[in-house]
Amino acid sequence: MLDVKGSFISYLVSAKDIVNAMNSEKEDEKGYITYLTTAGWVTGKEYDISTVDVNSEEGIARALKELKEQGKGLDALSIALSMYNKTAKDFKDEKGIEINEPNRAIFLEDVSIKSPSSKMVNANVFVLFSDQIIGVLPGKMDLQLLND
Fold it and tell me: The whole model's pTM is what?
């Protein structure tokens, strides 16, 4: 099932980065997008998820070695997504049940969240589900500028 909203958001991030590169503008905003959600404003940069073979201990060890060679570490989001994908595949293979995913998860880093009550939360990583998004603004918005 196609997630129209999630796909559009991904395309918007890519298009914004291409336009900024062509115009030599806002390089510090590369990958950032600001979301208006049901819970307030969220701004962050798309987070690069690693694929991890969670089928065996050997697969996890191999992934750890590859990530270490690339100068990266293993993160909980990558493991969780890989475990989720394995479960979805197992359900389809073993039980003939396909998990519909109309709303995708958007993985963000360097995140700022401003709630309707004007509370600010900063986080290294955050998972935003596309069904919670009302609208998007290309780029990184300074949420401190929003009035209380």
Answer: 0.71
